[in-house]
Amino acid sequence: MFRLAVTTLRYRTAAFLAIFVAVLLGGALLSAAGGLLETGLRLNAPPQRLAAAPIVVTGDPAYHPPNGNGAAAFPERHRVDADLATKLAGTSGVAHAIPDRTFPAVVTTPFPTGYDALAGHGWASAPLTPYELTAGHAPRSGQIVLDQRLAGTAKPGDQVTVAVGGEPRKFTLAGIAAAKHQVDNPAIFFADADVAAGVNGPLGVNGPGGANGTAGTGEAAGVDAIGVFPADGTSAKDLAKRLDLPAGVKAYTGDDRGGAEFTGIATGLPLIIMSGVFGGMVAVVMALVVSATIGLSVRQRRRELALLRASGATPSQVGKMVVAETMVVGVIGLVLGLLCGRFAGHWIFGMLTGGGVVPAQLRFDQGILPFVGAAILTFAVLRVTVGLAAGRAARIRPIQALAEAAVPPVALSRVRIIVGLIFAGATVAIASSTPFMGPTNAAAIGGPAGLTGSIAVAILAPLVIQRVLIPRVTGWIEKRGTAGTLAVINLRVRAVQFGAILIPITIATAIAVGNIYSQTTQQQAAVEAFTGNLSGDVVITSTSGGVPASLTEAARSMPGVTAVSELVQSKGWIEEPYDKSHTSDAWPLLGLSGPIYKGKVTKGSLDDLTGETIALPPGTAKKLKVDVGSDLGVRLGDDALVKVKVVALVEGPTGYESLLLPAKLLSAHTTTGLPSQLVLKTTNKKAALKTELSKWPGTTMGSRDVLGNGLDTGLGVDAWISYLLAAIAVAYTAIASVNTIAVAVLDRRREFGLQRLTGSTRREVSRMLGLEGLMIAAIGLVTGLITAAFTVLPIALATRGLPIPSGPIWILLVWVAVVLLLVLPTTAITGRIAMRSKPMDALSTPVG
Question: Where is the signal peptide (predicted)?
Fold first, then answer.
């Protein structure tokens, strides 16, 4: 039977090519998903600017809820006390310890740099890379040393303008330095005395934790990291374990040091979630596509399988033959897919880093385990699907097979109908419950509706086709003449075969359209909720590290300006009393300094939002049993626990509430120490927009539309999961549709030959095929869009309050065009191939 199975491959090329490509793509994508999982578990990020330090000590970059599970990355730099460096330097086995303080610094003149995010450091931290001088000398007060990539044609002694803390300042170029290895972000080194006096000194930058250290306490400024160098003969790993570190501070060695240098590498949970959803969806879609293709191939071979049974083959032998021929093709596809898995993994990871979902410095790890896991899972999916199809082929009786080959049955079994209805019911139940969820949970609850609906259509595909062919629809087709009449007859009689074409179109439409429009709807809802609660006509944004105080003061005197508010965004947690509603997921924090918030104040006044105060949503205050005048302990984005007094209860959009704090307090606990934007209320918007801002390099002024630019909606990972799933849907649709159509059309050579012998021309047969393809494409698009609606509309209702999705209409139009361009040309080309031979020769074709 194995030899016979291999022989059949020569005559069933189209069907087995579909299985081959589907398994190849599935194996490649599953191994890529495994690589994302391994990367999320390992979190290896080789250090760059801190590479010379064998041990890096810094604040724990991950927040760990006191009464909850999981962890979340701090949105801001978690700095440590500068005095810790002195303590570590005195530890036995430590040769020396070098602290590093990073602050925003951007070269503005006399030469462009091409870098948007430059960092200032004290010269004493240069050995942490190491940087070495190639010209000039170490900086003194009022001087700087530039990375050679920034120096251009400048030479020591030239005057350079650097925006530090958003303020442009003149410095003398003391020297030029080069890093001894790759450092993505070139550094600007200042005199250590200037950095130490940065709070009110020549740099004018805030110390870590704000202008006064930890807000309002007057504590000394901290540092980002401390590089520890072991003494000769001392193991870095052993020394790191015995360092006496305060709570919340960690020592890193090896590639783990990158987590101390780069933000966003505190937890691999986003990658772990993404890899799980991504891999699971690949496996499900692959199983549906492969099973549909195998099922179509087996149904088309009923005659030859019946002849095998009639000639003495046992059911077991027939089943083994179907399994053997499919597994031969599948295993070859799996091997090639695994070979392509590394390229697929790097490609997907590159898109994630390019999109800012994960830090670019994170290393993509894809060892042997992702490939082993992908091989096992792909093999299991393939074996189960082919086993089901082989079982059907083995059980059928010879006489029944010959009869079904002549007139294919359309009726579905009772079990299949029940299973399909169960999935359809699950889709309705999921869609019905989604509108009652908050915006945060709406996507997680409503997203699976598209998948369950697709499975329901896949199971009931022949029944769906029959129910769609109502008189009004068939009448329109039959008006196209004989070709239309034959197309309607074929759609009814061959509903099972056309169902195999319908399945990938429906699945792809539901996944692609559903996921994309779900994300655009959620993104738009988040932006509308944020911007809708802020009044103001003009927004000033800075790309040089933040908005300096001098610009805020200047804005107050701009023509037509009636109110100015600094705007600061971060995230944090309420810990005293503990808020169980936000554990690993943080509260959005919004810092304000002016009357621009439009939410309804139910108690207290936002005029009192100064100093160490906070405004809460009324529902949160009720849940925590606090009121105006109560004290709270809030864990801010840099791990500082600040004590604040509740001065107001303010309503916000349901599901998008924020905690309001004074801008000065919140900005003091951000990485830059400065507001990110200024919002201006004006009586003359045009006059305000004409204000000259050249005094502050990197600042731009625009209308309130820019408020939503760069807004962290918290949907970054979810969005990329949706886009990757949409890409999978497109890929599998192209593969499955093209191959399934090819198999179905080429198998009808005898039918076309008979039609031509009875008087039909090639053009008439081609027109019949075109109408069939157009109908199946239309049915697939409609059922896919209906299925997608069970995801998109409930999510829109949960996030926007109306069942109206957001997103450009061209996405839908492009998708319709993609489906039509896949179905119609493939049908036409394969139809021409099927009619290439003479009619009498087609009647004697041994196989389709």
Answer: none
